[in-house]
Amino acid sequence: MPGIDEITGLVKSSARDAGFDLAGVAPVHDFPELAYFPEWIGAGHAGEMHYLEARNEAGEIKRASLQNTAPWARSVVVCAINYNTDQPYSTGVSDPERGWISRYAWSREDYHEAVIRRLRIVEQCLFESVGVGRQDAARTAGEPALSEAEGPALPNPREATLGATEAVFTRCYVDTGPLVERVYAKYAGVGWIGKNTCILNQKMGSWLFLGVILTSLELTADLPAPDRCGTCTRCLDACPTAAFVAPYELDSNKCISYLTIEKRGAIPEEMRDGMGRHVFGCDICQDVCPWNRKAPATEAPEFQARDGLVNPALGWLAEMRAEEFREKFRDSPIRRTKLSGVRRNAVIAMGNSGRGEFVAALEKLRVDEDPVVAEAAGWALGKLRRV
Ligand code: B12
Ligand code: SF4
Ligand code: SF4
């Protein structure tokens, strides 16, 4: 078996070959930033994203420490891929009849798929570099669960047997793993955590998706990236809904990204004005960041913008029907908010537009069969009539 430095080098170069722009290795450790996670949950900043609050059998918040869910993990390989395309920033366009879908969601393929596919290539390289091809050795760990010393007491770890007593375990995640990916990205040297809470890289900016591989191998760790925010506060000042309670601290309940993507049902009225013309996600705190001024554009075909999604017409989205939604947003992250969410958001944006032209359409939407859309249309009409 090659030395650990060599394995680490092979894994990182396979990440580049797989199409990742950045890759690094973080040690597994209870980093100081993780102590903030239970505080954040306790303050209610997760809103209705209850999956973030999940606890293990001992009652500990899973995401606060890998000890709580993957005590076998020794290293986290963090990979990042640029999704920026050569398109305007939301802060640079202002047609009130058009809405804004955030940059990451214009893609032709859902990023979870695009990232996990590449992570699997890196994972395969890891297995091969320790001398066991996954094809030969990967198997699903059945019951009874493996002991902590031997491996994870988790279902379906990828396992490659090295010898009688030695084994290597891995798990790949994009979003759904029991860890705060940005903290590991920082300690893998991928970038620093900005005051807007995003991972920023000096050369690439912050238009990055993250993917992680937990492994029981103790790989050579990178150094954390230094914070380069300095005295800048542009992101904090630009947020239209004052979602940052402090630098590095975001209250999801006030974040347009949460409201437009994760929040089901009616959006609290006091948040609607601040949503402006956003119909899915929000890019403002990244658009204004000086480190994104010269962010390079990706050539990955999956992340090129679909027709009609950059600056989409509000009328089109508000009146969209189920069949077109399925067709237009097949394999798109926009499916997450469902048709009801997209229409609700477009209707609120119409209310915020100041455009009397929308009144006739909103009158019809006020009696829409979807009660969430109908309620939002009533609010939008009221707002348009007040201005
Ligand atoms: C839940 C979630 C959200 C929530 C909450 C976001 C948030 N800031 O917490 C909502 C729906 C609002 C959201 C929005 C977005 N998201 Co999101 N989201 C996640 C998810 C699934 C979990 C994040 C989480 O645990 N949040 C809890 C808080 C506490 O963690 P955190 O913000 O990451 O905070 C850490 C640091 O701020 C930190 N900290 C660091 N330094 C300091 C200093 C001090 C003094 C303090 C107090 C704290 C502190 O402490 C925290 C850890 O405890 C991750 C994937 C994952 N599994 O990690 C993706 C992820 C973070 N999201 C991502 C993206 C792309 C977005 C959006 C850009 C999408 C969009 N355009 O709308 C926005 C960005 C908004 C923003 N400014 O964060 C990417 C981020 C990539 C990057 N470059 O950073 C991720 C990593 C997904 C991925 N796999 O690529 N998201
Ligand atoms: S994504 Fe938008 S709403 Fe959320 S914190 Fe950033 S600027 Fe504010
Ligand atoms: S806008 Fe300024 S403070 Fe905010 S993340 Fe970028 S550099 Fe940091």
Strand and helix layout:
Elements: H1 4-17, E1 22-27, H2 32-42, E2 75-82, E3 100-101, H3 111-129, H4 134-137, E4 158-161, E5 167-173, H5 181-187, E6 192-193, E7 199-200, E8 208-215, H6 234-238, E9 244-246, E10 249-250, H7 256-262, H8 269-272, E11 278-280, H9 284-287, H10 314-318, H11 322-328, H12 338-352, H13 359-365, H14 371-386
Parallel strand pairs: 3-11
Antiparallel strand pairs: 1-2, 2-8, 4-5, 5-8, 6-7, 9-10
Describe what this molecule looks like in 3D.
The chain is α+β, with helices and mostly antiparallel strands and 387 residues long. It has 2 domains: 4-87 and 101-215, no CATH class; 241-275 and 313-386, no CATH class. Helices cover 32% and strands 12% of the residues. It is built from 14 helices and 11 strands. The strands form 4 sheets. It has a 5-stranded antiparallel sheet, with helices on both faces. A hairpin with a 5-residue loop joins strand 4 and strand 5. Helix 1 runs antiparallel to helix 3, helix 12 runs parallel beside helix 14 and helix 13 (359-365) runs antiparallel to helix 14 (371-386). The longest helix has 19 residues, at 111-129. It starts with a helix and ends with a helix. Mean pLDDT is 92; it is low at 135-156. Bound molecules: cobalamin and iron/sulfur cluster (2 copies). The site of one iron/sulfur cluster has 11 residues, from helix 7 and helix 9.
